[in-house]
From TrEMBL, chains A, B:
Designated name of the protein: Phosphoribosyl-AMP cyclohydrolase
Name of encoding gene: hisI
Pfam families, per database record: PRA-CH
Any one GO CC term of the record: cytoplasm
Naturally occurring in which organism (per UniProt): Syntrophus gentianae
Subunit structure: Homodimer.
Catalytic activity, EC: 3.5.4.19
Length: 123, 123
């Protein structure tokens, strides 16, 4: 079976996460081989947390799980794209997407919707 | 001005590239600070090629430039999302998107359109 080349990124590959229903890019996270296999096995997006150095089932704390609807792999086999059904907010700040700030000449604008107060989710 | 934190990724951050017109994710590339500033200055997506170890104006060989329409930055400030107007194919294999292969249980399907023969573009 076609599998990402984890060696290229020293064991980790970036996974782009896109909303299956409307194409919005929600976040980018990293996967090691264990996270990759777990994602395939469970159908729930699972990553490797670089800050916590541990396997991270997205939503295990917040309840904001990602059900994987489609996986595509890039030409170099060192990046994957997950199309997911996102429950709640993808971003730990409470915004729907982690990419909630637009940079234009000299200023920053908020372009995503804040769905939840993170203090209500991460206790 | 809000700028990505290049230090976190040892000088490089991932840039997700999305088609401005239809939301299709086209590719992922890397930027160092020079590439970031060049992109802002010129409005043409410019990356750092990890394989060639040099600044890479996307399209300089193929003619398949990317005109940047919007830049958003993620919560951790270590990933950017570019919405671009893509001329021709984003992928060096000739496909519109680098993510042209869908992985399903045990098999791989082609899900993007091959626009050009790479031999006609990279001479």
């Amino acid at each position: 079976m076609l599998e990402p080349n984890f060696e290229k990124g020293k064991g980790l590959i970036p996974a782009i996460v896109q909303d299956y229903s409307n194409g919005e890019v929600l976040m980018l996270a990293y996967m090691n081989r264990e996270a990759w296999l777990k994602t395939l096995e469970t159908g729930k997006a699972t990553y490797w947390s670089r800050s916590r150095n541990s396997l991270w089932i997205k939503g295990e704390t917040s309840g904001h799980f990602q059900v994987v609807k489609e996986i595509t792999i890039d030409c170099d086999e060192d990046t994957v794209l997950l199309k997911v059904e996102q429950t709640g907010a993808a971003c730990h700040t409470g915004y729907r997407s982690c990419f909630y700030r637009r940079i234009t000449a000299g200023k920053v604008e908020i372009v995503s919707e804040r769905l939840v107060n993170p203090e209500d989710v991460y206790k």
